[in-house]
Amino acid sequence: MKVNGQPTRTIWVETAPAEGQPGRVGIIDQTRLPHAFETMTLDTLEEAASAIRDMRVRGAPLIGAAAAYGVALGLQGDPSDARLGTVYNTLYATRPTAVNLRWALDEMMRVLTPLPPEEREAAAWRRAGEIAEEDVAINRSIGENGLKIIREIAARKKPGEPVNILTHCNAGWLATVDWGTATAPIYLAHEEGIPVHVWVDETRPRNQGAALTAWELGHHGVPHHVVADNTGGHLMQHDMVDLVIVGTDRTTANGDVCNKIGTYLKALAAHDNDVPFYVALPSPTIDFSLHSGRDIPIEQRGAEEMTHVHGRTPDGEITTLQVTPDGSPVANYAFDVTPARLVTALITERGVVKAESEAIAALFAERNSRTAA
Ligand code: MRU
Questions:
Q1: Which are the catalytic amino acids?
Q2: Is the CB of 62 under 6 A from ligand 1?
Q3: How many C-beta neighbours within 10 Å does residue 221 have?
Q4: Atom 6 in ligand 1: which residue has the minimum CA distance?
Q5: Atom 5 (ligand 1): residue with closest C-alpha?
Q6: Which residues are CB-neighbours of 111 under 8 A, at least 6 positions away?
């Protein structure tokens, strides 16, 4: 998608590996947005791992792509079996909830393990690049499938009346390699000239909605309002939301959806107000090994995310301020689970599917049988 009119992705090969010259990976440092657009270069396994852990890159699909490139970085100069194990374990330990991390690491292992060590470095760069490209294509297809839903709602509206979409967290292009999941249908609808308006949940504590979703929608001219996290229920009661579209970090085989903390409350409000609640997801986010959302590991992050807020002062300095009293303990659960019964449907790259075991298994039969085997 575009930043200041320039096509930009969230991750790229900064320097391709060549004889005697290691490869390097470029990322957008998302901890600096929306106040500063800064890129940084990753040279080592440790830098890739800390970029994921510290959320310089974040969002389930981007975490997967960053991990794949992290493997390529980590094998440079030592593609041995022992190193491959270290690289896998180091990256796997970065964040627990987004299953795209495990998916991407397993995919890299599947390709690399059978190869002789001397062939692994080139193969790792190749497969990481493919994973990134596949993410872009998948999200574009999610967009096309979700666009049909937005078109249908727009057709029932008076001419010029916008389709109001509520989203939570950032499941936009910044959370993927490009396009986003929840935002892909929105961008395509906007490009097609359908009037859309997005309610952007601020998404405490890290404010991914206020900082990232609002930033990217703004750069694309998509009309939106940032709302406090608890506003959605009120908007839905007053017919100000036509549909909810969120992303997910892990969806289980039965359709339970794990996403950023607060998603569940939006699903409850949507259910109570007959507002359709859609989840946009690429197939690597489906965990066919789990059959209940209760089994998903929920990340708990540091207290500082709760006790402090980041922002920009009037003189342009990006700073951090404490909002809680000294000594108040905090609990920082990063994700929650929305039960499948509250989900209208899943928008995938292969089509829109009910959040039910049989329907999901039928749509992704090959993934399902691989897990069962
Ligand atoms: O903690 P984050 O910022 O990585 O959480 C991101 C989300 O919860 C997104 O909604 C999810 O990863 C889907 S991204 C397409």
A1: 249
A2: no
A3: 9
A4: 59
A5: 59
A6: 123, 124, 127
Give the pLDDT band of residue 20 (cuts 50, 70, 90). confident
The CATH T-level fold of domain 144-372 is Rossmann fold (3.40.50)
Kind and range of the H or E run holding 185: helix 183-192
Domain 2-133, CATH: 1.20.120.420
The pTM (predicted TM-score) of the whole model is 0.97
Q: Which residue spans of the chain are classified as CATH 1.20.120.420? A: 2-133
State the closest ligand 1 atom to the C-alpha of 181, by its place in the atom list counted from 1. Answer: 15
pLDDT digits (tens, 9 = 90+) for 196-216: 999 999 999 999 999 999 999
Q: What is the mean pLDDT of residues 344-370?
A: 93
Q: How far is the CA of 158 from the centre of ligand 1 (A)?
A: 34
| Ligand 1 atom closest to 180 (CA) | 15
Contact 243, 210 (CB under 8 A): no
**Which part of the chain has CATH 3.40.50.10470?**
144-372
Is residue 207 in contact with ligand 1, taking CB distance under 6 Å?
A: no
369 pLDDT above the threshold of 80: no
* Cα 133 from Cα 137, distance rounded (Å): 6
Give tens-digit pLDDT for 266-281: 999 999 999 999 999 9
State whether the beta carbon of 248 lies less than 6 angstroms from ligand 1.
yes
Q: What is the pLDDT of residue 5?
A: 87
Q: Give the whole-angstrom CA distance, residue 104 versus residue 177.
A: 13
